[in-house]
Amino acid sequence: MTTFKSMHHTARKRMVIKLGGSTLEGLHEAFFDNFKKLQESGVDLIITHGGGPAINRELTAQGIESHTLNGIRVTNEATMKVVQSTLIGQVNPSLVHELTNAGIAAIGLNGFDGQLMVADFLNQAVYGFVGAIKTINTSLLEAFLNVGIVPVIACVGANEAGQALNINGDTVASEIALAVGADSLLLVTDVHGIRIHDEYQAIVTPSLIDQWTEQGHIYGGMIPKVQGAVDCLHAGIPSVQIVGETLIGTTIVASR
Q: CB–CB of 204/194 below 8 Å?
């Protein structure tokens, strides 16, 4: 993955926050207050989001079957249309509205806007219309951050021919964090971090993650979360966390 332009890091800290679809539907005022406090403390925010529950409801309503493979939604043409219309037409504007009501200036974006996320098929034979990010237009994100506006990014990319592609939300968050040189990445989900043997882990390392994945303790949708988190850590992002709505959870560190 490459960026359109290498950008200079500003004095303000940067945090990329990914909101999982199930988390989105239970947000409350205190949650957005936390975002406001982060901004006021000198942190520039970029928010990315999925929308799994909303997509599932629409797929069911239209009688379209869907399943996941390795934590990724296998996306045929009909499913892609639902993903695109739901994320861009419903979930994204709703989240922007909630942020605005909380006093946070925000703008909704997706991969089509200013070629924000140009993607290729991840593996069309296996996953269908699922994308792997090729480029991120960091200049567009910089323009909003520089005037205090929070980009809110739906996880829909587009290839060079203009075909919409469904991109895993955790992958989007990780790639965006790497592209803008974020100081931290927060993956907000409906669980309070990584749970092993029914116990949430406060601090974990990549080697432990590899071990637990091989043993089957980490599986399903948690796999792309931890993979993206570890990639960001190896690329130099100082802090990567998988957290619940309290923004407290598991911190992934290079070593202990």
A: yes
